[in-house]
Amino acid sequence: MTPTHIVSIYDEELKYLTRRISEMGGTAEQMVGDSVRALVNTDMALAQKVISEDVILDTAERQINEKAIVTIAKRQPMAADLREIMGAIRIAADLERVGDLGKNTAKRVIAVQGSSIPRNLARGLEHLAELALMQLKEVLDVYASRNIEKAKEIRERDDEIDAIYTSLFRELLTYMMEDPRNITPCTHLLFCAKNIERIGDHATNIAETIFYMATGSQPEGERPKDDHTTSVGAIEE
Amino acid sequence: MTPTHIVSIYDEELKYLTRRISEMGGTAEQMVGDSVRALVNTDMALAQKVISEDVILDTAERQINEKAIVTIAKRQPMAADLREIMGAIRIAADLERVGDLGKNTAKRVIAVQGSSIPRNLARGLEHLAELALMQLKEVLDVYASRNIEKAKEIRERDDEIDAIYTSLFRELLTYMMEDPRNITPCTHLLFCAKNIERIGDHATNIAETIFYMATGSQPEGERPKDDHTTSVGAIEE
């Protein structure tokens, strides 16, 4: 009976990683949503909450890494299982970064305080955040379901986020040109928009990692990413 | 004689990882240096060179990951050796990001084209880049030497970069307020300054990874990072 016994402990360890990643995903989503709500409502208390929550993701990432390394050392997994563990490490790193981006947006709430954000700008930021969060949510669902076709789809769908980011970028520049008093707050909003746009990149990274976990290779073809907007300013990394 | 033989092949594999990381470091440094030179001299050809070099780091990171995973699967390393391999994966990811930041700066050269960058702004950007590159170079030396005390020192020394970034941020806002025609190019320079500042963060990450590789734990104490500048706008992640 020993092999079964070992396998089931091993499964427990993999399940631990999967569960912790899902938890991290939930926390990251919450932080990003809250940070944008804090920003458009200048809600300092909510911003402070987001800032204080960052440590949850830092701790979770460290614990996932530790568990992953202990599991590798003890179980000496091969091929698919090893990829599963390495993938968990990568996804945890992406989710930790998503939390950092939420925290950075939250920190900027204090800097835009006192300058009211025009309604359509706020709506633009909210819309950008909705799309980025939807992408993050879908990719976390794919992590649970391991639907590889879906993972490829998400990877090919960053375009909408980029288009909205570009239009927000233009709009923010316009506000800055209209009145020099808008320059400082709009600069912070530019960075916030960039933070949100980068969440889409992390969702794409996670989709690639899930593809790799399932197949052992990277998705084919260049990652769809380009800047049709160099002249106006919304430039991808 | 077999154990010695196995150990020496294993050493070769670890050496391969160390060598490829050093190469990645060299490429990343070069790309960042070139991107800032391209920016301050509006040198489109050099910018294009940086953009085209990004694939070198992407490929190197993928190869390092593959080698690392094959090594783990074949050699089933314990403790220190496993940390060595996991550390290589993490450092490769940081260096790949540094290359992305250089590429992003290079992409913005086209956007600031036509607007001459005031001499003292250019000097500020160059100075920021020098400091960030020095930090990156030192951390890569520490990776080669494994001088742990030095790794801790680098981690505690991001402050100078932050101070220069903050002063550049203020200066850029001033230019934008002086003349609305400065707004678009200065916005790009803001993102370039942020890119360079983030290289310092990646150097700090690498220093932490080296510490972890040597000791199996994270350096103690909160990572020195804070924003005394929320009101002016230079905000850390």
User: Helical stretch count of chain A?
Assistant: 7
First and last CA, distance of chain A: 52 Å
Query: Which consecutive residue ranges of chain A, at least 5 long each, have pLDDT under 50?
Result: 226-233
What's the multimeric state? homodimer
Overall tally of structural domains of chain A: 1
Compute the CA-based radius of gyration of chain A: 20 Å
Into which percent range does the helicity of residues of chain A fall?
Answer: over 70%
Q: What's the CATH class of chain A, please?
A: Mainly Alpha
Structural category of chain A is mainly alpha
Main sheet summary of chain A: none
Principal-axes shape call of chain A: elongated
Please name the CATH topology of chain A: Methane Monooxygenase Hydroxylase, Chain G, domain 1
Please tell me the CATH architecture of chain A by its name.
Up-down Bundle
CATH evolutionary superfamily of chain A: Phosphate transport system protein phou homolog 2, domain 2
Average pLDDT of chain A works out at: 87
Percent in strands of chain A:
under 5%
Task: Name the largest protein-protein interface in this structure.
Answer: A-B, 42 and 42 residues
Number of strands of chain A: 0
Task: Give, in order, the helices and strands of chain A.
Answer: HHHHHHH
